[in-house]
Amino acid sequence: MSDKIAIFVTVKQQVNDINLALSGLLYELKELRGTIDSQHAEICSLNRNIDKLLKENRELRKRLEKYEKPPKDSGNSSIPPSKEPVKSEMERRTKSLRKKSDKSVGGQPGHEGTTRKMVATPDEIENASSQFCTECGRDLSDVDGVLDYVIQEIDLPPIKPIYRERRFYKKVCACGCCNRDYAPRKRGGNAITFGKNIRAAATYLNVVQCMPYERLQSLFETMFNVRVSQGTLANIVREMLDKSRPAIELIERLLKESAVVGFDESGCYVNGKLNWSWIAQTTYLTLVFRGAGRGAKVLEERFGDSLKNMIAVTDRHSAYFAIDFLNNQICLAHLLRNLEYLNDIDKEQTWARDVQTLLREAIHLRNEKPADIIPKGNWLTRLDGLLKKNLDNLRKEFNELKRGIIKCRDYIFNFLENPAIPSDNNGSERGIRKLKVKQKISGFFRSDTGADAFHALHSIADTAWKNGQYPLDAILALA
Fold first, then answer.
1. Which residues contact 56 (CB under 8 A, 6 or more apart)?
2. pLDDT digits (tens, 9 = 90+) for 364-382
């Protein structure tokens, strides 16, 4: 009996110890849970801070990229020269995308130089001779001189206005009819008008030489002794716009009949509002005009169904590929500049240089064989091999340009199969650059009429220049 009691006491004591142990364990679990909750909250807070720091790091890296990347200018991007920094402009004048050839510097053998030639009958002859001996001082006025050498000097005549009086006579027939073979005098018009030479010179200097009215007014007064107000100068240019309309219609009609046409567009400001200037040009024609926007609708409204018969030479602006052209040719000069920028970003890679080499070889082959039809299949195969390369290890700009080239792959080498297609759109850029020069000088056009006058008259002047004529002569013909 006593043994049973001893066992019962021992079991009871062990049971009491387990309760104490479980209570201790429960307390420790609560402590651990509190610690875990505290650490979890701390970890969440740290994660939030890490996300914030990562976001801030990305923003700072993005801001820093523009300082780490080489600056974009007209030599490695599509930024026009008028918008590049002064430093980039100075560097551009000493750096060219053209590779150095093995030819010597200067005129090449066979090049015909030009120089001023003496005329057979000069307008004036001036004799220069000594009147006194430089040694003894004797009078030499009666001594006949011996011709030593002859030079001719080109100078301007004394500049003064010519006042031409024009008298108009009416004749009365025996039948009583009054005959006037001239336009009637405008009511309220001034009896003093400006002749065609002044009107043509004012238009030429304003449009071709981009001189604003204020400087034109000063030039006419100081050089020609002709006083003309800025309002009169604006009226002269406006009148020339009206006289230019038949010529513009002829240029537009000839462009619609052309097989290969280059297009480009650029922003222009008219009375503080953004407009768009468009150019359509060939080797012999230039048409510059204003459009309401930068979309394909502008060209479709202007040229209509004739676009279906054109091969368009353009940059990679999406509007040109929304138009139903007969075919397209993208400007390789643009691509070469974009690839040059990739070379500036990463000088160790070779992909951009390989694509540049391919394009330059194609252009060189066309220059060597200007009239041949060259199949483009092999060139596309070589390009496809470069486009299949994985560029994920390079900066994102490489894949961006690669995707852009893939989109226009079929329009890169069309110039090889058709000798009439140029490999670049430089003609359009040169044609529209006059507008940017004008804006750089004057800021913006003050009226729609002034903008339209500049576009139309520049079209005529540039077309005349392309056909071997002086722009001043073309404007003089309008006056």
1. none
2. 999 999 999 999 999 999 9
